[in-house]
Design a protein that fits this description.
2 domains; four-stranded antiparallel β-sheet
Length: 293
């Protein structure tokens, strides 16, 4: 499933063709994705101008001039394809041909500019929902999400407070969207490696008895910000289904330090360890037992 960097990459790719632009026409080729589309879904989008295109955790949020917000989630295999008026191909390094089956082109936005934005999702785990802006704070899909890891509110003190007294593993805590929003398996593994913290360590280690953040918490916050910014700059990671809106693959998978590197030498300078993999909470965890304590 795309994580925060992949979703942010998609947002940046859609921004030039959607933000400040009018949706001339919408076609929904089916009445449901992961969940049924609202009965007035298409009608509420026709003729509306996208006043802003944002992101919350792994969700894309398109603000409309009607006061509604189009909430979009990529699911497991969802992606957006942008077709410009005079451009029928998307050449580039690591170019990957999109699925051309119209059965997988579920929602098509014809922009007044002539651009066409198509949501393609072979597995149909993605979903869209229109929510009034005034009700967004109470939207069940967003309510309860933790702070944005790249936002100003996210710091060592906040992370320590969220993890204080938790007996769960550090990795499980970071995957909990109520603790911090947008992190997934890949970037949690990478951040823990960069912070030299074991994924097996208890989450409570991030807070001292007084509740103050420990050095572990400070290192981890820095590592999370570093790995996410680097991944966004590289266009995300191209494992399985992720594609940028241009059709290109992301590059960050070439910078993985531990993820998917089982049996390979640790990349920490001076460490003679080997990357190991084990199953944790039903997911593969990659780490170096020698330098992650």
């Amino acid at each position: 499933m795309p994580e925060l960097p992949e979703v942010e990459t998609v947002r940046r790719g859609l921004q030039p063709v959607m933000e400040g632009k009018t949706i001339d026409h919408v076609v929904a080729h089916r009445g449901d994705l992961r969940f049924p589309l609202q009965k007035d879904f298409v009608a509420r989008l026709h003729g509306r101008t996208v006043t802003g295109l944002g992101r919350r955790a792994k969700y894309l949020l398109a603000d409309l001039d009607s006061g509604d917000v189009l909430l979009m989630h990529l699911g497991m295999s969802g992606s957006f394809r942008v077709l410009h008026q005079h451009q029928t191909e998307t050449p580039g390094h690591f170019h990957h041909r999109r699925d051309e089956s119209k059965a997988h082109d579920h929602v098509v936005f014809d922009m007044a500019s002539g651009d066409v934005v198509t949501f393609n999702d072979p597995r149909r785990f993605g979903y869209m929902k229109i929510v009034p802006r005034t009700e967004l704070a109470h939207e069940p899909l967003l309510k309860g999400l933790g702070p944005e890891p790249l936002g100003n509110e996210f710091d060592a003190a906040m992370l320590a407070h969220a993890c204080r007294g938790k007996k769960t593993s550090l990795k499980a805590a970071l995957l909990d969207q109520r603790v911090v929003a947008g992190l997934g398996n890949i970037y949690v593994c990478e951040a823990l490696f960069r912070a030299h913290l074991s994924p097996k360590r208890q989450a409570s280690a991030l807070a001292a008895r007084s509740g103050e953040p420990t050095e572990h918490a400070k290192r981890l916050v820095t590592a999370i910000r570093t790995v996410l910014n680097a991944a966004i700059e590289a266009g995300g990671s191209s494992l399985r289904d992720h594609r940028q809106t241009s059709g290109e693959l992301g590059y960050f998978q070439h910078s993985f330090q531990v993820y998917d590197r089982e049996g390979q030498p640790c990349r920490t300078r001076g460490c003679s360890g080997v990357v190991k993999r084990f199953t944790q909470n039903g997911r593969s965890t990659f780490w170096c037992p020698s330098c992650q304590k």
